[in-house]
Amino acid sequence: AQIKLVKRLISQPETFDLDKVLIELETKKKFLMKHRSSDYATILKGLESGELIHPNIEEAKRAEVKKLRLIEETEAKRLVKEAEEKAMEAIAEDLEAKAFQLKKQEEEKAKQKALEAKAKAEKLKAAAIKAEKIAAKKAELAALEFEEVED
């Protein structure tokens, strides 16, 4: 069996799966160890008659299925992790955009308040000028009245 494996390895190295071969050898070893008291001819007759059950490829297939499931689970975990990372990046970008938008809104509010304060100051200045003119006219009228009273 080992010679066959070596020949197969030499002739077809690209199709040679070491894991499968090791599993196959292990199952054959277990089978032979179980029936080591029998000679080769007895084992062969037992296999032909059906008294002995050959270690079929099912064990190797099960091991390979487990290996494939493990690979699939690992790949699925990696994909989930990538998706979570992308989701976190999207959330972070969204938060940054919202923060930028809030900052702009705050700046606009501050500009609006500054404009309102400036307009209010201009109104107060205009009112002060008007009050000053009124006071000047009243003072002028009072002066004229005072002159009339003196005359």
Considering the chains and any ligands shown, give keywords for the structure.
single chain, 151 residues, mainly alpha, 0% strand
Overview of the molecule:
With 151 residues, this protein is an all-alpha fold. The chain has a domain at 1-55. Helices cover 87% and strands 0% of the residues. The protein has helices spanning 2-11, 18-34, 40-49, 57-150. α2 crosses α4 (57-150). 1% of the residues are buried. The model has no long low-confidence stretch (mean pLDDT 81). Residues 57-134 form a coiled coil. Keywords: Coiled coil.
Q: Could you give a short account of the major beta sheet?
A: none
Q: How would you sum up the global shape? A: rod-shaped
What Rg is obtained from the alpha carbons, in whole angstroms?
Answer: 49 Å
The stretches of 5 or more residues where confidence is low (pLDDT under 50) are none
Mean pLDDT reading: 81
Backbone structural class = mainly alpha
The helix/strand series, from N terminus to C terminus, equals: HHHH
Number of helices: 4
Coiled coil: 57-134
Keywords: Coiled coil
